[in-house]
Amino acid sequence: MTGFLAALAQTMRDEAHMHRLWYDIRSQTLFETAFRADVAELDKSLEDMIWRIMCRFAELTGKPQSMPPSAIYAMIDGLFQQCLLKHLSGDPRAIGQMQADVRLVISKITSSSAPPA
């Protein structure tokens, strides 16, 4: 967990402008189809990356995943995007808050052993 949270913080600090460009391009595909297939492919690869990390957490905790990859990715991505906006706006607490929120979400996901009814 510590390594994953550190990596999220590091990429936010070092590559915020690249992430800003990614979110801009991804949003533009809602209006313009030119990059839609490429964006969908890249977004899927990011979802797969998060899923691999969550599967590793499941192995370490001994509890199976209780949520689908798309839902987990949406939560982590949403927290990352919120952080990016705050970080680029000069909020010095943005990265630490994202780390705390991601830790909480992952802890909740990994502590649940069965899908919700």
What does this entry look like structurally?
With 117 residues, the protein is an all-alpha fold. It contains 4 helices and no strands. It has helices at residues 2-28, 36-61, 69-88, 94-111. The radius of gyration is 15 Å and the shape is globular. The model has no long low-confidence stretch (mean pLDDT 93).
Q: What portion of residues belong to β-strands?
A: under 5%
Distance between the termini: 28 Å
Query: Which structural class fits the helix and strand makeup?
Result: mainly alpha
- Average residue pLDDT: 93
Show unreliable segments: none
How helix-rich are the residues, as a percent range? over 70%
The count of strands amounts to: 0
Bulk shape: globular
SSE arrangement, N to C: HHHH
Question: Total number of helical segments?
Answer: 4
Radius of gyration: 15 Å
How would a textbook summarize the main sheet? none
List the helices and strands and how they pair.
Blueprint: H1 2-28, H2 36-61, H3 69-88, H4 94-111
In short:
The chain has 117 residues and is mainly alpha-helical. It has helices at residues 2-28, 36-61, 69-88, 94-111. It starts with a helix and ends in a 6-residue tail after the last helix.
Characteristics:
117 residues; mainly alpha
